[in-house]
Design goal:
Blueprint (H helix, E strand, L loop, with lengths): L12 E8 L2 E8 L4 H8 L18 E4 L2 E4 L12 E3 L13 H9 L8 H14 L5 H7 L11 H16 L4
Parallel strand pairs: 1-5
Antiparallel strand pairs: 1-2, 3-4, 3-5
Length: about 170
């Protein structure tokens, strides 16, 4: 006789451990809690924004083990043991801005700021893969993130400036 799979109650909690911005977290979450909601509600890091809730806009982009992922498309239980970086973790020691943050400030890469956390994390990962992008490569790097305010011109300038800042500081 074949055994039936165990059916869990929809509100059953699951224990998940992971790191966010270098700090260890252990949380208990329902199986269907989205990672974006867990980061905001359970961990208390509200920098990850939720826009479309379909993975299209990129506002919820974080880094998971160094790679950009849409936090609104992942269940929190799926990040067991992962290392996550949110926008709050992109700064430099001593509360200094990271290269991408500094470039956004210098080049006016944001207006309302809603999409900015997703752009910052996406660009951070992109510059690790391509530390010296052309303007066309910078546009490709940000192609998966939507902004309703800026027209992307200053965001592209910010990508190129962030690459300069990284080179000047030794590639951090």
């Amino acid at each position: 006789m074949t055994s039936q799979p165990e059916i869990l109650a929809p509100d059953a909690l699951h224990h998940v451990t992971f790191t966010v911005n270098g700090a260890a977290y252990e949380i208990d979450v329902p199986a269907r809690r989205l990672l974006s909601d867990a980061l905001r509600q359970d961990v208390g890091l509200t920098g990850t924004h939720v826009g479309c809730e379909h993975g299209v806009c990129g506002a919820c982009t974080i880094l998971m083990d160094g790679r950009p992922v849409r936090a609104c498309l992942l269940f929190a239980v799926s990040v067991q043991g992962a290392s996550l970086t949110t926008v709050e973790g992109l700064g430099e020691p001593g509360d200094r801005l990271g290269p991408v943050q500094q470039a956004f400030k210098e080049c006016h890469g944001l207006q309302c700021g809603f999409c900015t956390p997703g752009f910052l994390t996406t660009i951070t990962a992109g510059l690790r893969e391509n530390p010296d992008p052309t303007e066309e490569e910078a546009r490709e790097m940000i192609a998966g993130n939507l902004c309703r305010c800026t027209g992307y011109q200053n965001i592209v300038k910010s990508v190129l400036r962030a690459a300069e800042i990284r080179r000047e500081s030794g590639g951090a």
